[in-house]
């Protein structure tokens, strides 16, 4: 997801509560959801997409 937003990598220990300011296309989000499908708890692809978007 960070690669799709084109943001630089950050140190998790030093920076907390990071707000992301990028935007990605729907095609990028769907491709990420297909890759994350195996680790998701959602039943359908639409649920996985909602998990990624945070809704």
UniProtKB/TrEMBL annotation:
Domain of life per record: Eukaryota
Pfam families linked: Ribosomal_L11
Residue stretches of biased makeup (Basic and acidic residues): 1-10
Matching InterPro entries: Ribosomal_uL11 (IPR000911), Ribosomal_uL11_C (IPR020783), Ribosomal_uL11_C_sf (IPR036769)
A GO molecular function held by the record: large ribosomal subunit rRNA binding
Gene Ontology terms: cellular component: cytosolic large ribosomal subunit
One record GO biological process: translation
Segments for region (Disordered): 1-26
Large ribosomal subunit protein uL11 C-terminal domain residues: 1-55
Keywords: Ribonucleoprotein, Ribosomal protein
Homology family: Belongs to the universal ribosomal protein uL11 family.
Protein name per Swiss-Prot or TrEMBL: 60S ribosomal protein L12
Species classification: Eukaryota, Metazoa, Chordata, Craniata, Vertebrata
């Amino acid at each position: 997801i960070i690669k799709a937003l084109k943001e630089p990598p950050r140190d998790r220990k030093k920076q907390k509560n990071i707000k992301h300011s990028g935007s990605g296309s729907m095609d990028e989000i769907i491709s990420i959801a297909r890759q994350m499908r195996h680790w998701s708890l959602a039943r359908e692809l639409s649920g996985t997409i909602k998990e990624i978007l945070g809704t």
